[in-house]
Amino acid sequence: MNILTHLLPQSATPQSATPPRSKRQRRGIELKTAAEIEIMRQAGRIVATVLKEISTLVEPGMTTADLDAYAEKRIREMEATPSFKGYHGFPGSICSSLNDEVVHGIPSRKKLIRSGDILKVDTGAYFEGFHGDSCITIAVGEVKPAAAQLIKVAEETLYQGIAQVKAGKFLLDIAGAIQDHAESNGYKIVEDFTGHGVGRNLHEEPSVFNFRTHELPNVKLRAGMTLAIEPILNLGSKHTRTLSDRWTVVTVDRSLSAQFEHTVLVTEEGYEILTDRSQL
C-alpha cells in the first residue's frame, strides 16, 4: 500500500491492530530478528496466496467488491487480519484501482470489471504481529497492446529495483534502477507516492522512493530491514489527483497506470522476496 509521505505517518498502524513498536531500531528503522523474519515470511505467503488466487479468478462481469470479499475471507481463513481494513478509515481489505486509477481505489459493488481493463490489486495481511504487503496489476480479458506493454514494463521495473537490494547499498541504488528502466521504455514514474518499511507497522521508515531525489534520506541498507518496494508507472503524465472520496487517486490526463509491489528482506548476500507468488 502506498502512502503520501507528507500526509500519513510512517509509524501508523491499522485501527484494528496496534502492536507495540520494536525496541530494535536504528534511526527509526527496525532490523528484524530471525524469529520475526520467519513470521514475516508467513505473513508474506498469505498475501502472495491471496493475490495469486485473485489473479486467476478475476473475470469480466465481477465487481471490485466481489474481489474484496474474497480477499478478506481468504486472509481470515489463514488466521490473519486484513491490514488495510480500517486503516485511517479505509473501508476495504484490498485497494482495487482500475485503468487510470493510480492507487487506493475503494472496492465497490458499482465498479464493474470489464474485458480490456487493467486492474491493480493491492493487499496486506497482519499475522502474529507483523504485516505483509504486495500489489499486482492484472490484464482483464483482451487488453490493448499499449496496456499489455505497460503492465510488462511495470513488473520488470519492480524487479530491476529489487535486484539492487543488498546490505551496504543505498535507497538511491533502488530508485535509480527503477527510474532508468521506466524512462528508457517511455513511461513516467509517479513521484507522489513511495514505498516504505514494513513490519510491526504497515508503514515504517524509511520511505522507499522510486526516482532520484535528495529530498528524502538516502538510507544505507542493512541486513534485517524489510521494505515494501512499489513503483507506479503511467502511460502519460506522472501527475495525479485525488477524487472526492479522498482515497482514489487518478492520473491527471486519464492515462493508464500500472503498479507492482513486493515485501523484500535485505540480507548480507542480497535479498529475499517475502511475497513471492512464484514459490507457491
Q: What are the SSEs and their pairings?
A:
Elements: E1 25-26, E2 29-30, H1 34-57, H2 64-77, E3 81-82, E4 94-98, E5 101-103, E6 118-127, E7 130-139, H3 145-162, H4 171-184, E8 188-189, E9 195-197, E10 204-208, E11 226-229, E12 232-234, E13 240-242, E14 249-251, E15 257-259, E16 262-266, E17 271-273
Antiparallel strand pairs: 1-2, 3-6, 4-6, 5-14, 6-7, 8-12, 9-10, 9-11, 11-16, 12-15, 13-14, 16-17
Helix pairs in contact: 1-2, 3-4
What does this structure look like?
With 280 residues, the chain is an alpha+beta fold. It has one domain (28-279): Creatinase/methionine aminopeptidase superfamily (Creatine Amidinohydrolase), CATH 3.90.230.10. The chain is built from four helices and 17 strands. It has helices spanning 34-57, 64-77, 145-162, 171-184; strands at residues 25-26, 29-30, 81-82, 94-98, 101-103, 118-127, 130-139, 188-189, 195-197, 204-208, 226-229, 232-234, 240-242, 249-251, 257-259, 262-266, 271-273. The strands form five sheets. A five-stranded antiparallel sheet has the order 10-9-11-16-17. Strands 3, 4, 6 and 7 form a four-stranded antiparallel sheet that branches. It has a three-stranded antiparallel sheet with strand order 5-14-13, with no helix packed on it. Helix 1 (34-57) runs antiparallel to helix 2 and helix 3 packs antiparallel against helix 4. The chain starts with 24 loop residues before the first strand and ends in a 7-residue tail after the last strand. Residues 5-27 have low confidence and may be disordered.
